């Protein structure tokens, strides 16, 4: 499954069931750009077990405010619509997997 762009209109539906990884990011954010290939790898490897999404904080500030995003990149891990983990800043693939796997 490809990484999806979450919006105000589809966000709740996308996180409602199963496990979802949501990156809050912006195009001008260097660490966000560094994280992109890591998220692509996670999506390729675990796409059947979880949904990977991105929220552009410049375009969807209300979503960022809803989850108290103070710095980016911020990854929020959701399980059946509820946030269960927050991961701040750039992280390696291994670090992300170590946090995500217990929730699959």
Explain how this protein is built.
The longest helix has 17 residues, at 30-46. This protein has a five-stranded mixed β-sheet with strand order 1-3-2-4-5. With 104 residues, it is α/β, with parallel strands linked by helices. It is globular. Helices cover 35% and strands 28% of the residues. The chain has helices at 11-15, 30-46, 61-66, 93-100, and strands at residues 4-5, 19-25, 50-56, 74-79, 82-88. The protein has a single domain, classed as Glutaredoxin, CATH 3.40.30.10.
Instruction: Classify the beta-strand content into a percent band.
Output: 25-35%
Main beta sheet strand tally, sense and closure = 5 strands, mixed
Round the Cα radius of gyration to an integer and report it.
Answer: 12 Å
Give the N-terminus to C-terminus distance in angstroms. 16 Å
Backbone shape: globular
Describe how the helices and strands are arranged.
Blueprint: E1 4-5, H1 11-15, E2 19-25, H2 30-46, E3 50-56, H3 61-66, E4 74-79, E5 82-88, H4 93-100
Parallel strand pairs: 1-3, 2-3
Antiparallel strand pairs: 2-4, 4-5
């Amino acid at each position: 499954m490809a990484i999806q762009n979450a919006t105000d209109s589809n966000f709740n539906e996308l996180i409602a069931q199963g496990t979802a990884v949501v990156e809050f990011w912006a195009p001008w954010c260097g660490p966000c750009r560094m994280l992109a290939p890591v998220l692509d790898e996670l999506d390729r490897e675990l796409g059947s077990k979880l949904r990977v999404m991105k929220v552009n904080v410049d375009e969807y500030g209300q979503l960022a405010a809803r989850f108290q995003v103070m710095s980016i990149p911020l990854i929020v891990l959701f399980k059946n619509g509820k946030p269960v983990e927050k991961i701040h800043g750039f992280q390696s693939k291994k670090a992300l997997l170590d946090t995500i796997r217990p929730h699959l």
